[in-house]
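Quick log. Single chain, no ligands specified.
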Amino acid sequence: MNNKILHDDPHDDKLRRLFSDFNPGLPSGNASFMTRLLRNMESVELLRAHNLKMRRRNRRAITAAFAAGIISGALLTALLPLLAPWLARAAGWLLALIPAAAQLSPAIIADSTPFTVVLWCAVAAIATLSAWQTYNFTLSLSPKSETEM
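-> predicted structure:
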């Protein structure tokens, strides 16, 4: 194995002398390439800045939607014992329109498991709907300068 250092090699000196005077000229299209490159780099920076603004905007909207969903779900859950008898009465009136279900009283409806499941599904649907509407509302409140590019 050759342990010589390359810069002591006489062939290396010849190569250095050969390439020391080498100064290749740039092709004529280089100026247009550089302007295109700079323009593309500016476009990339604009896109990055726009994506950053959109990410911030969406984070605010998601945070507001999360808070609205939690608050509306908690309020409806807290009010559910108060609302259940009224909703059972309303369901009894609606079921009175159906001849086969006319014998069901509001007390039977309020104590039934399907009614409770329907109430919890309604709570979940209302909380989801309020979160979704809050998200859309928060996005609509963002300044125009954030949404335009």
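Residues 85 and 141 are 39 Å apart (CA to CA).
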